[in-house]
Amino acid sequence: MKKIRVFFSTLWKIITFPFVWIFSKLWSLIRMLLARIIGQPYVRFETNVSDFWLHRVRAPYRAFRRKHPWPGRIASFGINLVVLLLVYWFVLETNFLYLTGETPSTEELANPDLAVASEIYTADGKPIGRFFTENRTPVRNFDELPKHIVDALIATEDARFYEHGGIDWPAMGRVAYGVLTRNQRGGGSTITQQVAKNLFKIRKKQGIGRKGLLGSIPVLGLFVIKSKEWLTAMKLERQYSKQDILLMYFNTVDFGSNTYGIRTAARVYFGKQPQDLSVQEGAVLVGLQKATTTYNPFLNPERSKERRNVVLAQMAKYGYLTAAQSDSIASLDLGVRTDREKALQEEEAVGYEGYFKKYIAEAVAKWAEANDERVDLYTDGLKIYTTIDSRMQSDAIKALVSNMRKTQREFKGHWGSRNPWIYENGQEIPNFLDSAAKRTEAYKALAKRYPNQPDSVWYYLKNRKHPVRVFAWNDKARTDDEPQITRAEQEFSSLDSLSYYKRMLQAGMFAMDPQTGYIKAWVGGLDYNYFKYDHVRQAKRQPGSTFKPIMYCSAIDGPRNLSPCYQVKDQPFTKVYEEKGEVKKWSPQNAEGYFTYRDMTLREAMARSINSVAAQVTDLVTPDTVAMYAHKLGIKSRIQPVPSVGLGSEDVSLYEMVQAYATFLNGGFRIEPQLVIRIEDRDGEVLADFKDTAVKNRTQVIRPESAFLLRNMLQGGITGGGTSSRLLWQFNPKGVSRQTLYDSFGGKTGTTSNYSDGWFMGVTTDLVTGVWVGGDDRSIHFKGRRGEGAQTALPIYKDFMLRILNSGAYTLKPFPTEQELNLIVTKEYKSCQTWYAPIQSDTTNYFANDSLEDLFAPPIVEPRPDSTLNFN
User: Fold this and answer.
1) Residues 10, 16, 21, 24: is their CA dihedral positive or negative?
2) Would you give the distance in Å from CA 456 to the centre of its chain?
């Protein structure tokens, strides 16, 4: 005890010394000035601070105490207390010697910085995601708060709210008495103090500079924190009205389930706006303030109901409700949303927008840097409007998910109990899962935990099972309206989980307007909750025959200046070349496994995806020219000028392929895909408008005539009996004639060696769409033609177009003619157009599927086992 007394005595001397020294100097200055005024010499009575303290302060004080013992002691206590409070107040305000840490400044109090989530909107104003640290959308006006929820809060948390100035002294006295008697009931914190705590994060601030030296001492630190809350609360009361403080409270408070603020809480728990909440719903939310987990209506409904009834009883106690009303409401159910998982998923912003949120952030950061703006996506409450069309995005998701569910079911049946990871020769890859496991975070963590103990590592990976929730297809779904995806509870080891997911086929889909550059739909995968890897822009795979239009563009627009009717014989072709000092031979095969030995026009060869012709044209124009044109059209990935480059052997992204194809639709202009169209602040003021930015910055990279011819050749892939012709089979969108369909679509399929990747690129006048399907690991794929792009990717595109046409989200426009484009096409292209598909009536499906299959599809012939590059 003596040591504690000595410690505080020493601390007191350290704290008061600067004030005593300053006071002594001021006293000396006053005496000197008075001496000069009255003309008397100034006599220096003290030589230092200690003399002043002994002669002027301490001696008279001790004389008084000897003469009047008890009054002296009371006076001593009172003086010390007043001095102590004044000194402590000064230290709090100034953070003197970093003793107590920072408190909110006058500017911070006048403009409190509330962390507000930035919201992402589609072009038509539909919210699709958020950036946030605290998921909050604030209420702007007090009038938006229902009176009953304000009454519930005051009755439960701060009954004298309208009477005090930030600190409820009777409640403080009750708390102090409870501490002394060890019978504490209720807290003494006011609503204003809670606003101070929530708004300025006084308790969460870390570091000596923020907490202070005294604030870092365990018991003393709590008192310092409470003191700063009291001081801030009193300042808030002086600066703001009671309504303003209540509004701040409802916007800052945590309601559990990662929801901050009354608007977000009302939406998550009840699917309503705050003004639409009922009395009992408001009581549930107010009841959460005692303990957001214990009384969470999702997690603990019975406890939540009990707490709600306590709130209702408090409202009755203070006259906000009658006893009868309170009892009647207490008998009701909680009324919270039954779709808890969906409610939380919506708020966590982990839907399909997760695949492109990164690029929104990059666009905002680029704008901020260029304009010297300081923005924080996670706290500034920005409103970011994208070019995404909500209906197209929704239909793209449905088309991809619905078709991938069917494809995955067929893939599972295709392989049965066998493992799908194989070499090109069909042999299973040995130790495939073990090699994949070594690249996982689980393996690395275990290897670090058990160094030089591989047996222990593999034991945990293979044998230690634990319950996990995994992505699964809903095989019970019979219609598109039913959920296609479900969550399955499994007992999996880490290796079990890896094996389960490795067997999953993945997909990506991307659509943009080639005229404006606006991105209309972006689906980077099956489900962002489980598959974070973006297959639109992040993934790069061999494009196969979808790259051939780019190669033919180099032949038509490049130095060779060929015509679509230029003829090349379909025959074996061998290219001898040198790579890293080694002489190699490359002899591509056609997908059908044979050659026709007849002359083919470039148009027909592209439509039918003839590899031998593509290889010869690549050699004619040179691989370097093909690579150069790929970059001109917008492909930024590395393209090596190898002999097979024209057949799509180099890895590119779906994003790049769509951009390249867009050049064929907009007169030869390379246009950058645009995702963000407008940025607003939290009050709706426009900070940046990017309308038509992509159009203003576009670059002419090929001649308009060449773009027209390539578009016409893509159209031939649909109408000329090519590999894309199955697009129009049983394709009857509402109110669209068969002639319009033939005049409005173009496309190209692509399948890489061993069926690892299936692609389809579809084009209309103002929409370019790309689809990719495959395994994340290239060795996982169908073993046969079921893995072709025409059977995996094309059906997704077909379904997507049917949906957007039937819903009215998109209207077909026939491709403009050369006259409508004011073009004079000097190259011959009409004489080599072939039209294998007769025009059907609007109401009758003229051909049955079987006859169309016979008419357009090449014979089913397995590729040669020794082939190494077999694109179609």
Assistant:
1) negative
2) 37
> Strands 669-670 and 519-523, how do they pair?
unpaired
Q: Is 184 exposed, middle or buried (0-12, 13-18, 19+ CB in 10 A)?
A: middle
Of 32, 66, 64, 33, nearest to 46 by C-alpha is 32
Question: What are the pLDDT digits (tens) for 548-560?
Answer: 999 999 999 999 9
Residue 144's SS3 state is helix
pLDDT score at 38: 62
Nearest to 646 by CA among 628, 623, 613, 612: 623
| Least trusted range by pLDDT, from 226-240, 278-292, 499-513, 745-759 | 226-240
- Measure the CA–CA gap between 156 and 310, rounded to whole angstroms: 8
Cross-strand partners of 519: 512
The whole-number pLDDT of residue 26 equals 59
Q: How far apart are CA 733 and CA 842, in angstroms?
A: 10
Specify the pLDDT at position 502: 94
Superfamily of domain 509-569+601-856 in the CATH hierarchy: DD-peptidase/beta-lactamase superfamily (3.40.710.10)
Task: Please give the pLDDT value at position 189.
Answer: 84
Would you call 872 exposed, middle or buried from its count of C-beta atoms within 10 A (0-12, 13-18, 19+)?
Answer: buried
The residue ranking higher by pLDDT, 687 or 836, is 687
Distance CA 155, CA 492 (A): 50
- Fold of the domain built from segment(s) 110-331+339-349: Penicillin binding protein transpeptidase fold (1.10.3810)
Task: Specify whether the CB–CB gap between 788 and 858 falls below 8 A.
Answer: no
Tell me the two tokens of residue 813: 């426009």
Residue 185 reports pLDDT greater than 70 = no
Residue 121 to residue 734: CA distance in whole angstroms: 29
Residues 65 and 71: their CA atoms lie apart, in Å, by 8
pLDDT in tens, 2-18: 666 666 666 666 666 66
Distance CA 101, CA 206 (A): 10
d(CA 244, CA 241): 5
Q: Are 166 and 234 within 8 A, CB to CB?
A: yes
Residues 559-574 have pLDDT tens digits of 999 999 999 999 999 9
Spatial distance between the Cα atoms of 859 and 422, rounded to a whole number of angstroms: 25
Residue 844 in this model has a pLDDT that exceeds 50 = no
Ranges assigned E (strand) in 59-125: 118-121
pTM (two decimals) = 0.76
d(CA 703, CA 726): 31
Strands (E), 289-393: 383-386
Arithmetic mean of pLDDT, 374-387? 92
Largest CA distance in the chain: 129
Rounded Cα gap, residues 84 and 91, in angstroms: 10
Q: How far apart are CA 456 and CA 598, in angstroms?
A: 64
Task: Kindly list the domain boundaries of the chain, sorted by start residue.
Answer: 2-81, 110-331+339-349, 421-502, 509-569+601-856
390, 124 Cβ separation under 8 angstroms: yes
**pLDDT at residue 357 tops 90:** yes
pLDDT of res. 630? 98
Angle at 684 between CA 680 and CA 685, to 5 degrees: 70
Per-residue pLDDT tens digits for 724-740: 777 778 788 998 998 99
State the chain's mean pLDDT as an integer. 84
Q: How many CB atoms lie within 10 A of CB 868?
A: 13
Strands (DSSP E) along 405-540, which ranges? 466-473, 485-492, 505-512, 519-523
Q: What share of residues in the chain are helix, strand, coil (percent, to 5)?
A: 50, 10, 40
Residue type, 701: V
Q: What residues pair up with 522 in beta bridges, in sequence order?
A: 510
Q: Beta strand 118-121 with 383-386: parallel, antiparallel or unpaired?
A: parallel
Percent of the chain at pLDDT > 70 equals 81
Query: Where are the extended beta strands (E) located within 465-581?
Result: 466-473, 485-492, 505-512, 519-523, 567-569, 575-579
